[in-house]
Amino acid sequence: MIANRRPWRAALFLLAAQLGSVAGHAWAQGLDSRHSGFDFMSAATQALQRDDAQNPAMLWVSDGARRWRDASAGRACSGCHGAAEQSMRGVAARYPAWDDRLAEPVNLQKRINLCRERHQAQPLLSSEDDAMLALESYVAMQSRGFPIARPDDPRLADSLERGSRLYTTRIGQLALSCAHCHDQLAGGRLGGSPIPQGHPTAYPIYRLQWQSAGSLARRLRGCFAGVRAEQPRPMSLDMIEIELFLAARAAGMLHEGVGVRP
Length: 262
Hints:
Blueprint: H1 2-28, H2 43-50, H3 58-69, H4 77-81, H5 84-87, E1 97-99, E2 104-106, H6 108-120, H7 130-141, H8 157-168, H9 178-184, E3 189-190, E4 193-194, E5 205-207, E6 212-214, H10 216-226, H11 237-249, E7 259-261
Parallel strand pairs: 5-7
Antiparallel strand pairs: 1-2, 3-4, 5-6
Helix pairs in contact: 1-8, 3-7, 6-7, 8-11
């Protein structure tokens, strides 16, 4: 039975890679029908994101720059990677990515924790810890304007399949899937708020509703709670696999650095 499924895994991986390539070309030609959540926001909220002097997420970016160079607790991030403006260019746009030692995909937050554990002898950070959000925001800013990469590593194929299945499977007491809202109803409204297409182009985000920065995991967990489903843990394999599928779905779209959302 498992052997019979392998061609489907390979076909799904190939399709995702082809779609990422086609979508990236279409985006460059102005033919792509995909839209960032930025396009669904009010002019006032868009203005907040556009202006780095007003964007509240930049507070976390500034803190991340400080933490990047901080060697008070041991080796600083800059001790291995140097200036993030060079070494981290485009990196956030390539995650989730495969980790050889774990033999599974990791998102950017988990990569930060792995660096802390393996190279800095520092404690792990939770997904919504300000220190984690600061470092992730600072790294994310180095990918602003870069296209989100399609996952072209064959080792990601199984995870990509599972992420796709989770995206399209009805879950929770309301028996809704991610696709019901973000594919079928995108552009409509829910409780007075616009329904975006759900592309992860600007995380971490400062969300006005939260009055704080937050991770993609926090936003996804909010969707799970909204349909009254069990919430995957941040940085769990389930969470990373759906993030991987979302990255494949958004391949070719431009990374916005840190965003602002309602």
